[in-house]
Amino acid sequence: MITFVATQGLGAMDLYSQKLAENLNGPIIWTDHYQRIAELFNISWFSWKSLMSLWENWQFVRRLNRLDGILHLPNHHLGRYGNFLKRPFIITVHDLIRYFDWKGFPVSIHKPNCRDRFYLKLDYQGIKKAQKIIAVSQNTKRDLIKYLEIPEKKISVVYEGVDHNLFKPMKSKRLVNVPYILFVGSEHPRKNLVSLLKAFKKLKEEKRFKDLKLVKVGKAGGKEADFRKQTREVVQSLGLEKEVIFTEFVPQEELPLYYSGAECLVFPSLFEGFGFPPLEAMASGCPVIASNVASLPEIVGDGGLLVDPHNLNEIVKAIREVLIDGQLKKELVLKGLKRAKLFSWKKTAKETVEVYKEVENLL
Q1: Is 180 helix (H, G, I), strand (E, B) or coil?
Q2: Where in the chain is the domain with CATH 3.40.50.2000?
Q3: What are the CA-CA distances from residue 127 to residues 66, 121, 123, 134, 149 (Å)?
Q4: Superfamily grouping for domain 180-340
Q5: pLDDT of residue 363
Q6: Which of 133, 160, 169, 267 can pair with 290 through a Cys bridge, CB separation 3.0 to 4.6 Å?
Q7: Which pLDDT score, from 0 to 100, does residue 223 have?
């Protein structure tokens, strides 16, 4: 028997957990523990929150150890608890972004402090102890093999899905009544929003795009840094204060409206373990321009335009072409819809159950 540990919360990894839970038939336990630890990056060892988290972590491990059979932990930051489990477990790894920050690569989110490094080390030790690892993309699998030296046979790739009942073309209502290009996601350095803002600035210098806006959907990021302040400073330096619209967090039910109303989604991210926005956009009939790095080519395929995220002129050119070439835009919409059909949560659940059976046969 395999019990799925489903996390409550609003993050992308919580979305995976919740959608998978909806489509699995086996035992499931729900917890908000991950939501709480996700808010504790960059705090001091000696803060009250840190001390309380030690007690909560111990209680969470006790709860997991009271369960029967094999456990499935839905994200890599729960790997820290795998070190203390008395039973076999499966773990889903979405990306190694925090690992790269820990090891001194160019900052993707934020440089971890002493406490963060301790817990991140536990996370990656726990991953290595898993009976089986589910990677959400081939790119994540390659990173696990290269950086954590995980044997390839221990990793299964199961792509995440998209809710086609929710994400579909919606022309009946517009939330923004001007032409706009769309960015969905946080403002972490890895999202490369600065490059998009610079590309947008270049486009705005052309008279035909004087009414064009950039709509930025989603929270700025966690509490470890003031990501919104950093973004605002860039916007101000480019003179785009009246041209960029920030929406903050948007409920899932509203997202299809933002996608469907946009001229295109631009997603110039430097690193993604999977990347929900391009997939959601394609399913919603929104033309997609995305980076040609990390996992994004796997997800977007031929359903969108892939660009070098380091090449500003290439980003500008792609956006311009979508804005002025009606035939190209129609082709991208059709290709995107076709591509998105390859991904569903039912398919994710079915392939996850196949991993479960493999593990049960080994034990």
Answers
A1: strand
A2: 2-161+344-362, 180-340
A3: 21, 10, 6, 10, 11
A4: Glycogen Phosphorylase B; (3.40.50.2000)
A5: 77
A6: 267
A7: 85
